[in-house]
Amino acid sequence: MTQAPDLPAWAAILTALFILLGAGITLIGALGLLRLRTFYERVHAPTLGTTLGTLFIVLSSITCFSALQSRFVAHELLILLFVTVTTPVSLMLLARSALSRDRIEGKDSVPPVV
């Protein structure tokens, strides 16, 4: 069962705009993953796309359900908080483990330990 007919036009347009914007930004991040050459370049693009894309998807969800329920619905902000916190942390852990592995293997392209 869908509640889409009950959604006001302004909320439907705003929800669709936020969804398309979030999906587009996430797609750009995914394309950056394919386009960039090294691991250290690749790990950065999807992280930004995921964080900003999630922001717009959460905004669309808040807009849609706040309009349907006639009150502000904010529990989606927890999703945004968790994704915003965990995505950069996982990026940092992946990059540090790759850097450590590359240093152990003695690769020349790795910066020295400071």
Strand and helix layout:
Elements: H1 9-35, H2 39-42, H3 44-69, H4 76-105
Helix pairs in contact: 1-3, 3-4
Which properties best describe this structure?
membrane; sodium:proton antiporter activity; transmembrane; mainly alpha; transmembrane helix; 4 helices; 114 residues; 76% helix
Q: Give the helix/strand class.
A: mainly alpha
- The proportion of residues forming helix, as a percent range, comes to over 70%
Tally of helical segments: 4
Strand content: under 5%
Order of helices and strands: HHHH
Total number of strands: 0
Oligomer: single chain
Note down, in words, how this protein is organized.
The chain is mainly alpha-helical and 114 residues long. The chain has one domain (9-105). Helices cover 76% and strands 0% of the residues. It has four helices and no strands. The termini are far apart. It comes from Sphingomonas horti. This is Cation:proton antiporter. InterPro entries: PhaG_MnhG_YufB (IPR005133).
Care to give the gist of this entry?
This protein is an all-alpha fold and 114 residues long. The protein contains four helices and no strands. The longest helix has 30 residues, at 76-105.
